[in-house]
Design a protein that fits this description.
This protein has 186 residues and is an alpha+beta fold. The protein is built from 4 helices and 6 strands; from the N terminus they run αββββαββαα. The chain has helices spanning 3-28, 77-87, 109-146, 151-184; strands at residues 43-46, 49-52, 57-63, 66-71, 93-95, 100-103.
Length: 186
C-alpha cells in the first residue's frame, strides 16, 4: 500500500470514529421516549469509587415515559439519586425507598426546538472534527510531496481526501435530519 493510500485509510478510520462519537452523543439527547441509553455516562459514588450507573443498578424502561432503576443494594439509592441530579439530564428522580423512577415529561414545542439546537451543536462539533482530520491529512500529503512524491499523486490524494470529507459531512447531515425528525414528531 502506498503512503497516500495509507494516509487516506487513516483519514477514513478517524472520520468513522467522529461519526460514532456523534451517534453516541445524539443517542443521549432524548426525543420524548424513555431509553436506558439516556443514562449512559452517568457515574454514581459506589463506596468511594465513581462507577457507571448501569454497573450499580438494573435500568429498565417501564413504558414510553418511565425509566426504573433498581439498585443492586438498597444503600445505593441516595448515591444513584445524587448521580442523576449531578448529571443534569433535566429529569428529577423519584425515590420510593426500593427503586428510583424517572418520569419523562412530555416535550413542549420550545423544549423540542432547544433539543434540535443541541443536536445541531453536536453536528457542528462533528463537522469541525472531520475538517480538522482533513487538514491534517492534506498536511501529511504535502509533506510527502516535499519528500519527493509527484505533484499529480499529491493532487489526486488531496482530491480524494476532500471527497471523503464531503461524504462524511453528508452523513452527519443525514444523522441530524433524522434526529430532528425524531424530536419534532409529536
Amino acid at each position: 500500500m502506498s503512503d497516500i493510500q495509507q494516509i487516506l485509510a487513516e483519514e477514513n478510520a478517524s472520520m468513522g470514529k467522529a461519526i460514532n462519537h456523534l451517534e453516541a452523543e445524539l443517542a443521549k439527547i432524548r426525543a420524548g421516549k424513555a431509553s436506558p441509553s439516556m443514562l449512559e455516562g452517568i457515574s454514581v459514588d459506589y463506596y468511594g469509587n465513581p462507577t457507571p450507573l448501569n454497573q450499580a443498578a438494573n435500568v429498565t424502561v417501564l413504558d414510553a415515559r418511565t425509566i426504573s432503576i433498581q439498585p443492586w443494594e438498597k444503600a445505593m439509592l441516595q448515591s444513584i439519586e445524587k448521580g442523576i441530579m449531578a448529571a443534569n439530564i433535566g429529569i428529577t428522580p423519584q425515590n420510593d425507598g426500593n427503586t428510583i423512577r424517572l418520569f419523562l415529561p412530555p416535550l413542549t414545542e420550545e423544549r423540542r426546538k432547544e433539543l434540535v439546537k443541541r443536536c445541531n451543536g453536536e453536528g457542528e462539533n462533528a463537522k469541525i472534527s472531520i475538517r480538522n482530520i482533513r487538514r491534517d491529512i492534506i498536511e501529511q500529503i504535502k509533506k510527502l510531496q516535499k519528500d519527493g512524491l509527484s505533484e499529480d499523486q499529491c493532487k489526486d490524494g488531496e482530491k480524494e481526501a476532500q471527497e471523503t470529507t464531503d461524504k462524511f459531512i453528508l452523513l452527519i447531515e443525514k444523522h441530524l435530519v433524522a434526529k430532528e425528525k425524531e424530536i419534532m414528531a409529536v
